Amino acid sequence: MAYVWDESMSTGVEELDDAHRTIFSWVNQLSDAMRQGKGNAEVLRILDFLGNYSAGHFSSEEGCMSRYKCPTALANKKAHAEFLDYFGKMKAEVKANGTSTAKVLELQQALGNWVRNHIMKIDVSLRQCVH
Asked: What pLDDT does 12 receive?
């Protein structure tokens, strides 16, 4: 399943929305690479980018939530830490054992949950604080 950003996911901060679009694009590349059985080097390259980019994005997003005094700022920071921990473990597992159908499905489920439960609930709450 491809992830597509739409206006219902808007945080009200263009920089953050652009970052979400970028993350969606790279997540889709990751899913495609894993599904197509591309080599571990390609999958790890994408995982590296996503991990580094997400960490930077999370820092920016947390700063915005703090600046606008968003009531979900603490939940957001906690969720980011948990996600980065999960993502690091996933990357280490792929590095050690390679990709598999089970890993593709697990990652797709985790990312789908992230879109539904984080972006669509926590991140979008920033929109009310910005306006």
From this structure: 94
